[in-house]
Write a structure and sequence with these properties.
Helix content: over 70%
Structural class: mainly alpha
Radius of gyration: 23 Å
Largest sheet: none
Order of helices and strands: HHHHHHHHHHHH
Shape: globular
Length: 328
């Protein structure tokens, strides 16, 4: 029963204002994180330049001037193309499992064009794929959203799994904080058991939550499908370990492939943080390699931003076809 003095229109206005405020914070948060990262990087780079007796631009220029960019491009271009093919294969496999039959070659323009929006936010790119398939193939939006959530869920376990392997192989060479990785992996594994049991109907029998369209992919996925996605993804990470190790040596930092395997999944977690220019990932490079602030900031900046902009350029190649299929 409504209270005697309550004003329904006022309550609706207050609720709308609260939702608008929360939405505003969600939009602002990635930019605030980016700003904090830039301030941190500026302070670190300014200090490193001062120790060298150089101005900031002169200090960074000397680092960029030592890199053989021809070799660097010879590493990054094939890697970016290979990642695109693997990434498209993952989306193709998931969509064919849970939504509709699509040829792999027809998935390439869908994934490629979504990279343009992924420049700012990877999740926005996945949302664009959902809209694309909804309009082109008339697949219900919630069900496509379920497949995108399934991919993101698998990405978390794929990175955590390889981070754990890297820690096992190189625990003595990694920062002390990385000792949390096996603990996090154990908790995540226990959660996965509960999660799988719930959506396979073995836990909380009769729950209506699992029947929502957004959870279609999780209802239909057995453990083998999670493992298949992790296996399909893995060549992309292993190739990244090789490419990033060789590229880092061009910047004057020599580490082994196994050690890079310990670092890279953690940094890729940072790269998944919403926000422009992958500043969280760049900041992690500087934090994890103290004493090499300039080299690591330059390395992180060119690695991650070349990757996202080159992928966006791939998307431009498919943009005309994408527009034709979406808008006739």
């Amino acid at each position: 029963m409504m209270e005697p003095n309550s004003d329904p229109s006022r309550e609706v206005q207050e609720e709308t204002a609260q939702r608008t405020s929360v939405s505003g914070w969600k939009k602002m948060l990635p930019w605030l994180i980016t700003l904090a990262c830039f301030l941190y990087l500026y302070a670190k780079l300014q200090g490193a330049a001062a120790r060298e007796g150089l101005g900031l631009l002169q200090y960074l220029g000397s680092i960029f001037g030592r890199v053989d960019w021809t070799i660097w491009l010879a590493l990054m271009i094939p890697y970016s193309l290979f990642f695109f093919l693997i990434d498209s294969l993952v989306v193709w496999r998931v969509i064919n499992w849970f939504n509709t039959s699509v040829r792999y070659v027809d998935m390439l323009p869908i994934r490629g064009s979504s990279y343009i929006l992924s420049i700012v936010n990877e999740q926005v790119g996945k949302g664009a794929m959902a809209l694309y398939l909804n309009r082109r193939d008339n697949v219900p939006g919630w069900e496509i959203g379920s497949s995108m959530l399934f991919i993101m869920f698998c990405e978390f376990y794929y990175l955590l799994g390889w981070a754990t392997v890297g820690w096992v192989l190189q625990r003595e060479q990694l920062p002390a904080e990385f000792r949390l990785i096996p603990i996090i992996a154990l908790v995540a594994l226990l959660f996965f058991g509960f999660f799988l049991g719930f959506f396979r109907g073995r836990i909380a029998v009769g729950s209506r939550l699992r029947e929502r369209p957004l959870f279609k992919a999780f209802r239909e996925a057995g453990i083998s499908r999670y493992l298949i996605i992790v296996l399909i993804r893995s060549p992309a990470l292993l190739s990244a370990v090789v490419v990033y190790t060789l590229a880092l040596r061009l910047f004057g930092i020599d580490i082994g492939f196994a050690q890079m395997l310990g670092y890279l999944p953690v940094i890729f977690f940072g790269a998944a943080t919403p926000g422009p220019m992958r500043t969280v990932a760049i900041t992690l490079w500087v934090v994890l390699f103290p004493g090499h602030e300039g080299e690591m900031a330059a390395f992180g900046f060119v690695q991650h931003n070349f990757f996202i902009f080159f992928n966006a350029a791939i998307g431009l190649l498919f943009l005309r076809r994408a527009n034709r299929e979406l808008f006739g």
